[in-house]
Design goal:
There is one protein chain. By secondary structure, the chain is an alpha+beta fold. It is 57% helix and 8% strand. It has a four-stranded mixed β-sheet with strand order 2-1-3-4, covered by helices on one side. Strand 1, helix 1 and strand 2 form a beta-alpha-beta unit. Helix 1 runs parallel beside helix 3, helix 4 packs antiparallel against helix 5 and helix 4 runs parallel beside helix 6. The radius of gyration is 17 Å and the shape is globular. The structure holds glutathione (GSH). Glutathione (GSH) binds next to helix 1 and helix 3.
Amino acid sequence: MPLVLHGYHYSVYTRIARLALAEKGVAYQRVEVDPFAPDVPASYLALHPFGRVPTLVHDGFALYETGAITRYIDRAFPGPALQPREPHELARIDQVIGVVDSYGYWPMVRQVFSHGVFRRRLGRPADTPEIERGVAASTKVLAALEPLVADSGVSLADLHLGAMMAYFVLAPEGARVLRQYPRLAAWWSRVSARPSFAATDPGLPTEGDRR
Ligand SMILES: N[C@@H](CCC(=O)N[C@@H](CS)C(=O)NCC(=O)O)C(=O)O
């Protein structure tokens, strides 16, 4: 049954879906879509009306929204379960994913990483006040996550948060925030060592990516 992931190489949300597929050991094809390009193909917009990435298409079944995609991957394919069954534990997983989506993505990725790392790599000016606002908002997010992360196993919450943390700590400002939270720092040491993280590492843009 064909399985296709439409996504952007540097997208954290695409990486979350790739992490789930890697943890399950599921083979798939990738189609590259840059959601920031001015000319996102109409064929992609037909799959995702908001023009974001990723979208998963499984044997004709098209699905967007990363939380829905990773839960689908976990339920539809064999391999290790990435969600517990116990209601309290499952609620914590869903809560962490919600916190990351609602409060973490923008400051951790779009403010601290994009301005502190990505834009600099592309030779674009970094907006220092934007980084500072991102650090302040991210500190609140990491403080909230400190008691919520698990200290063993792997779940969809670890993948969701992990994809964002991987970018966040590439900025020295982000790495400094993480050091203030010992449980989270230990969680990150453990989770980032998983083979799925090495297998899905997007790297950083090079001179050739400038546009
Ligand atoms: N709620 C969406 C968010 C996906 C998202 O924001 N993806 C980013 C890339 S990491 C994107 O497509 N951004 C394009 C834009 O902001 O225009 C999901 O969970 O899949």
